Amino acid sequence: MDGDTTDANEPTAESIAVEKDQPVSSGESVSDRERMGLLDLPSFKKEIVDGNRGKPIVLIRFENLRGMDLVDFLTYLRNHINSQLDLVDIEYCFHYIEESRCLLMGISPIGRWDGNRFPNIDNAIGRLHEESQRKRYCRFDFGVGRTQANYISSVDEIFFVLDDSSRKNLRDNLIRWSWTFFNRANSYFSGDASEAVIQPTLFYDRNAETFSVKGGEVFVGGTIYQGYYDLINDIPEGEDLERIELLILEKLIIACERTPGVLKFNISPQTMLDTFANTERVNRLNRLLHARGLTPSNVRFELVEKPYDEEKVKLKEVCARFFEHGITFAADDFGVKSQSHQVILDLGLMIKEFKLDPISFKFKPDEDRTKFLDNLAFIAYCKRLADNREAYITAEAVEDYDTLSFLLEHQINQYQANIFCQKMPVVQYREEYEQMSALPAPIVFQILTDPTLLQLQRKRGNIFHTAREAGLFS
Predict the structure, then answer these.
(1) CB-based contacts of 468: which residues, under 8 Å, 6+ apart?
(2) Mean per-residue pLDDT, 280-305
(3) Residue 88 C-beta-side C-alpha neighbours within 13 Å
(4) What is the CA radius of gyration of the chain?
(5) What is the spatial distance between Cα 92 and Cα 74, in angstroms, rounded to a whole number?
(6) Is the pTM of this model over 0.90?
(7) Residue ranges per structural domain of the chain
(8) What is the CATH number of domain 14-183?
(9) DSSP code of 293?
């Protein structure tokens, strides 16, 4: 066959699995693979070239397939292309290269395609690529090569042209997808500032026996939260996630212009290390805060629990640069088994807030007395940490009166939970900040224990609005 040789990468039963944790059944026979059009390389070349002399042929290269078994993907491809192109006179054949986990797909006409009927293969595969990623069926990269299978050139010569052009197209696509993604990201994050929302934090003043909003955690969201959700889900593997975190941080700072109270922003330790190892970048962010009318001492970075690499620079060194400007830090989801313990030890006095999730605590001693006592000891430990650092403990997800009473009894005075306030637009928060203060504790307890008022509170989502609507607070 014009000098063709047997390829060393002929697929095995194991190689048909796209992911190592998605093995193909060992009962998959050669005849089953041939039925699916999955051929060894010599057969694939012969099928796609020799069988189509004088006809146009297309080679599609699929790489980095994730999330779907290969055999299922073959069926997925056939069904999609048939429906997209609305053609019945198409033949398919496939070859899978185990070493590089690359699938080659050959498409050729059964009869003849004139110039007006030549299908738009690029468009069909492009739609599949976008739909698969958006609906989270699977992910893959692809490149398309095409040529006319003439009668004079050898099989290897024609196949080389197809293979080489599909590789080049895949490289071009990767560059284009990267720019398309970042253009979409930049367009989203440079949009309307009102897209940001805040989850208010309430503080209980024991001397005055009142609840007031002290600040809150800021999120990207608002009216087009779904757009943000889709954007994050569409981030291709291997893309610069730290850059996306930085875009989020910049957008939130801009959205919080002149916003009062302590403003908290989530950020991963690795982003701190990768993005702000350069002191000048820290200074630029500090200048951005001042330009937006924000006080750095009222800005707090919540370090989320994610692994990080301190090979080049220490997290403590990077955080110290922010701390010099007055910016402080919080340990997010701090608990008994929390990895945040190491961050707290490393950052010391720079940690000014511990975020606790009371859902993980079982407060009833009659159910599990040992666990109950362990939780009491942990709360006492947190209080000692907070006292040593002049820090606050913030209880998250407090959703019932019993939990609130327990925490108040143990001197936990700060809360970030829907039982008090749901997320609200930053614009609204800025306008109502002064009105969300000095709500007497008896009114709070009345609302949370009266079934009618509690139902109203769940509907309104803001305990200050509920108190005013019920005529309990002016």
Answers:
(1) 474
(2) 93
(3) 0
(4) 30
(5) 10
(6) no
(7) 14-183, 190-437
(8) 3.30.70
(9) T
